[in-house]
Inverse folding.
């Protein structure tokens, strides 16, 4: 299926309770909403993320928002706020980070949006570099680079990210080759605007390049060093790729995981644990003379009919409330069959998928997100997670485990599935577990070793006190990774508990904090949240009734779960040190 554009006829399958319906509609697409809302022009504002709410179900307030469109305007904004000692936070166009990185403290806070800092400043074809403002989107960068015959070799699969945002959270693609898959490792220069002294005019602009003391701190900054104004990236000549998806039994997944990542440049694996399947992405460069004009338009990132989203969510809510695990498994099998049959959205010529391999230019295959391409106002279709419609509402747990330990982690998860075969059907409704490869980085808050990144998306109830079906299994997987295998959390995803004590896992954390103190001694770009995750204040867990259900805590007593609904705090089934909310069929609590 090609990109869905405004006022296009769409034929779309919908799965409900295991049955297939074909809906035929004439659609009119809707762009995502602005994450910032103000009651009057640019004042008395709130900010949230693209999912409509943060992990603790809050939205954040700010007194004002500024929209600089040049570096000079940005410097003036930072200088004025520094003179007034106002807290500041950087906001991006789409706000796709899950945690509260964009929240300023207090009601007098200032949001600095990079929405209009969206210009390509320079492309040097001979040097193969590209300089952009921090609000440029990944889609813009990919397209403009391709026009010049250049390519960013590795990138996230979702193009609705800004360069400043994805660098700030350490976003990445998938490879163990070269410098690795993290975009920040292809940066050769930053310009950052930070608070300054009176003699600096209250704002200081720094140019950082490789070799500077602060460069490795700035590569993954969490937004606490100031505002990235410009970024220069090292690119490569545009090339072609060949992609084939191969579905196999997952029995030897643990043995295959390391060797597969080293064998193919753009390798990744999509794992369906309850179906006992793994889909291997065999993805490598080929000669530019190779025939093919393939396109990647990932199906879950396309605009979706709002009536379809409503039906799918209603079905899932029914399955959750009635413990309908079998219904989830049937639905997951049907959805995965559709995705694999349609090659996940790959096409050989930009329209049809006729078979593997799919060969095409890198810029057409590396990233997608066509649900962002719309311009109409009527909410007939939207991105699946758009909070303005009844659609997806989920938790996301994403972490990286060292390549040497990935096999053992996978085997522990497989042991859990042997005990609870249907437990991951709910995850498979969201396309299973995406496994990407990341390489050790010189960034102080980057990856500490070559690793496998596990990306898990799963149902979240609109009721914070409602436990999920197989609540305990997903909690045990989370704690297995973060505690037993010392996994690193993705800075732009995850529930609160993933960040508790995480900073201790970074060997250069003190170096990062030293740069932070030098760049922003008053902490104007810091907040309670960032101070918590950086270990400067007490941790981010919140102990209260039902807190484990939302990932705000690891349960230590029954009230952290939902005893009224039969969920009690108990040890894990495979990882006995885990503490998870387990449903008791007897209705009685067994002591830990």
């Amino acid at each position: 299926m090609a990109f869905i554009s405004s006022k296009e006829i769409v034929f779309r399958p919908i799965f409900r309770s295991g049955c297939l319906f074909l809906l035929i509609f004439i659609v009119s697409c809707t762009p995502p909403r602005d994450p910032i809302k103000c009651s009057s022009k640019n004042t008395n504002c709130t900010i949230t993320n693209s999912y409509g709410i943060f992990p603790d179900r809050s939205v954040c307030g700010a007194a004002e928002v500024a929209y600089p469109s040049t570096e000079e305007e940005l410097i003036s904004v930072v200088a004025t706020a520094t003179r007034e000692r106002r807290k500041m936070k950087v906001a991006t166009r789409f706000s796709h980070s899950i945690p509260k990185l964009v929240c300023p403290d207090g009601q007098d806070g200032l949001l600095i949006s990079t929405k209009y800092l969206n210009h390509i400043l320079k492309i040097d074809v001979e040097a193969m570099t590209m300089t952009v403002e921090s609000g440029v989107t990944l889609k813009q960068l990919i397209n403009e680079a391709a026009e010049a015959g250049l390519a960013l070799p590795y990138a996230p699969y979702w193009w609705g990210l800004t360069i400043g945002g994805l660098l700030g959270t350490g976003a990445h693609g998938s490879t163990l080759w070269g410098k690795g898959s993290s975009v920040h490792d292809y940066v050769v220069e930053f310009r950052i605007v930070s608070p300054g002294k009176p003699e600096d005019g209250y704002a200081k602009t720094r140019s950082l390049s490789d070799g500077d003391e602060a460069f490795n701190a700035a590569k993954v900054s969490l937004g606490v060093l100031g505002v990235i104004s410009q970024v220069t990236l090292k690119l490569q000549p545009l090339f072609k790729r060949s992609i084939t998806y191969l579905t196999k039994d997952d029995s030897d997944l643990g043995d295959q995981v390391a060797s597969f990542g080293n064998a193919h440049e753009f390798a990744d694996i999509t794992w369906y644990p309850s179906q006992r399947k793994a889909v291997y992405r065999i993805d490598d460069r080929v000669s530019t003379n190779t025939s093919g004009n393939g396109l990647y338009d990932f199906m879950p990132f396309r605009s979706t009919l709002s009536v379809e989203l409503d039906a799918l969510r209603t079905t899932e809510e029914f399955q959750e409330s009635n413990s309908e695990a079998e219904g989830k498994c049937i639905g997951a099998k049907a959805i995965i069959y559709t995705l694999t049959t349609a090659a996940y959205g790959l096409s050989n010529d930009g329209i049809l998928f006729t078979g593997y391999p799919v060969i095409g230019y890198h810029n057409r295959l590396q990233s997608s997100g066509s649900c962002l391409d719309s311009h109409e106002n009527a909410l007939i279709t939207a991105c699946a997670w758009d909070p303005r419609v009844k659609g997806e509402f989920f938790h996301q747990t994403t972490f990286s485990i060292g390549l040497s330990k990935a096999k053992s982690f996978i085997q522990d998860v497989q042991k859990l599935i042997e005990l609870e075969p249907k437990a991951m059907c709910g995850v498979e409704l969201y396309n299973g577990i995406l496994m990407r490869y990341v390489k050790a980085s010189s960034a102080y808050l980057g990856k500490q070793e070559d690793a496998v990144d596990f990306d898990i998306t799963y149902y979240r109830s609109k009721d914070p006190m409602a436990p999920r079906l197989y609540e305990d299994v997903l909690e045990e997987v989370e704690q297995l990774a973060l505690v037993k295998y010392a996994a690193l959390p993705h800075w732009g995803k995850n529930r609160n508990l993933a960040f508790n004590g995480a900073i201790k896992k970074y060997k250069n954390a003190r170096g990062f904090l030293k740069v932070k103190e030098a760049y922003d001694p008053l902490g104007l770009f810091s907040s309670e949240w960032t101070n918590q995750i950086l270990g400067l204040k007490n941790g981010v867990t919140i102990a209260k009734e039902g807190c484990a259900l939302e990932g705000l805590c690891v349960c230590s007593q029954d009230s952290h779960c939902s005893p009224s609904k039969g969920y009690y705090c108990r040890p894990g089934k495979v990882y006995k040190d885990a503490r998870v909310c387990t449903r008791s069929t007897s209705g009685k609590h067994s002591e830990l």
Remarks:
- The two ends are 52 Å apart (CA to CA).
